[in-house]
Amino acid sequence: MSAELNQLQCEACRAGAPQVSDEELPELLRQIPDWQPIVVDGVMQLQRVYTFRNFKQAWAASNKVAELAEQEGHHPALLLEWGKLTITWWTHAIGGLHKNDFICAAKTDAVLSAQ
Ligand SMILES: C[C@H](O)[C@H](O)[C@H]1CNC2=NC(N)=NC(=O)C2=N1
């Protein structure tokens, strides 16, 4: 079996890097079952909504995800609201999903489930 996604490191992303193929997609999604594949303006993305008891907890979670993003050199969209953090991963450089997005989704779950 391949390594767990949250044990992998993101690769440097650049234009021309491979998008996740239709064949790879189901197995990768299986490993991050709480994330939804969505399509925005023709770009496939991974999204999860986390809920919290108040704004401050959602804010603290957004800071943890921001730290993760800086460690990995890969950055999500974060929508911070009262009691709610919406996290969306995709790879800007290729206008779609790279394996990095799945790695970061798995690492997001690891970081936020530890709180
Ligand atoms: C130079 C730098 O590594 C790139 O611009 C990175 C930064 N973070 C990134 N994050 C995401 N999500 N997609 C990218 O294409 C991307 N590119």
From TrEMBL:
Keyword Lyase among UniProt keywords: yes
Broadest EC class assigned to this enzyme: lyase
Keyword list, A-Z: Lyase
GO molecular function, one term: 4-alpha-hydroxytetrahydrobiopterin dehydratase activity
SUPFAM superfamilies xrefs: PCD-like
Listed EC numbers: 4.2.1.96
Any coiled-coil regions, as ranges: none
InterPro entries given in the database record: PCD_sf, Pterin-4-alpha-carb_dehyd, Pterin_deHydtase
Reaction(s) catalysed by this chain's protein: (4aS,6R)-4a-hydroxy-L-erythro-5,6,7,8-tetrahydrobiopterin = (6R)-L-erythro-6,7-dihydrobiopterin + H2O
Family designation: Belongs to the pterin-4-alpha-carbinolamine dehydratase family.
HAMAP family documented for this protein: Pterin_4_alpha
Protein name: Putative pterin-4-alpha-carbinolamine dehydratase
Species of origin: Vitreoscilla massiliensis
